[in-house]
Amino acid sequence: MKILLTGSTGQVGYELERSLQGLGEVIALDRGRMDLADLDQVRDVIRSVQPQLIVNPAAYTAVDKAESEPALAHRINAEAPGLMAQEAARLGAAMVHYSTDYVFDGTVAAPRVETDATGPINVYGRSKLAGEEAIAAAGIPHLILRTSWVYGLRGKNFLLTMMRLAQERDELRIVSDQHGAPTWSRTIADSTALMLAQARAGGDGWWLRHGGTYHLSSQGQTTWFEFTQAIMELAGIDCRVLPITTADYPLPAPRPQYSALSSAKLMAADCHLPHWKDALRLCLK
Ligand SMILES: NC(=O)c1ccc[n+]([C@@H]2O[C@H](COP(=O)([O-])OP(=O)(O)OC[C@H]3O[C@@H](n4cnc5c(N)ncnc54)[C@H](OP(=O)(O)O)[C@@H]3O)[C@@H](O)[C@H]2O)c1
């Protein structure tokens, strides 16, 4: 199977390049080889590679910057994935795409399931939701995997930022009234590969039975404050962590207050997901 992988320099894309190796020939493309802001290039590259599967972790992920660049965020997060799906339809290919907990408004204090009503409250969330809708509209075999609070040992993420700041400061003041589940980029990549191995074993009928949208985030839930405490504890860093409120730390893009996802549907598909603290421990190990 020929697999076109986008965003190979990102947290999830980097891990996917490794996890997908057992499934076929992985053609990993960075922004230099396929810029999602350039729709003509996206079309040309897909037509020249002719993949049987497109895996698209590339995205405009700068949540705050998106507030001042809505058109660019929409092109990269909605129009480009929609075009990929149309090209996949031409080729008879399948597509795996990633989305976010930020498609929800965060007003319900219970883990969200796939069928819950969406209602993004920032530009990034709206652009990601539009991407989901464009892929679903193409009518191709697909998986849309919504994840949350992604971290890993490379790229720009909360874990690495906290570990750096803890070396520079005596104390960290961290928001304690936003709830969610930190998810290791490797968990996302390995779960994707597991689902795709099932798809390969299940033949064409698998996509009809199991394709669609899944929540893919660590089990359990926490706050950014508690996550930071766990990072300090597990990394053995001595730095005081103090709770603050969202109002104490204003940012350009509003965040959903409660964005935990229920991954029960994915777990029922034989894809086990670790508790967020166990995954963090493994990542730091
Ligand atoms: N990060 C999170 O906390 C989070 C939470 C929920 C869902 N998600 C979703 O999970 C997926 C993976 O996220 P991630 O954390 O791995 O993101 P990331 O680390 O920020 O990586 C984003 C990737 O997209 C690439 N990219 C950005 N603009 C591009 C463009 N115009 N053309 C081609 N490539 C472009 C980046 O390339 P460069 O290296 O060249 O910039 C990078 O490889 C995304 O769909 C994201 O929306 C992420």
| Rg over alpha carbons | 18 Å
> What is the count of DSSP helices, taking H or I runs of 4+ residues?
10
The mean pLDDT is 97
Report the strand count: 12
Could you outline the blueprint of secondary structure elements for this entry?
Layout: E1 2-5, H1 11-19, E2 25-28, H2 39-49, E3 53-56, H3 70-91, E4 94-100, H4 123-137, E5 142-147, E6 150-151, H5 158-168, E7 171-175, E8 179-180, E9 183-184, H6 185-202, H7 204-210, E10 212-215, E11 222-223, H8 224-235, E12 240-244, H9 264-268, H10 276-284
Parallel strand pairs: 1-2, 1-3, 3-4, 4-5, 5-10, 6-9, 7-12
Antiparallel strand pairs: 8-11
Helix pairs in contact: 1-6, 2-3, 3-4, 5-8, 6-7, 8-10
Key words describing this protein structure:
single chain, 285 residues, alpha/beta, 12 strands, 42% helix, 16% strand, globular, binds NADP nicotinamide-adenine-dinucleotide phosphate
Task: Characterize this entry briefly.
Helices cover 42% and strands 16% of the residues. With 285 residues, it is α/β, with parallel strands linked by helices.
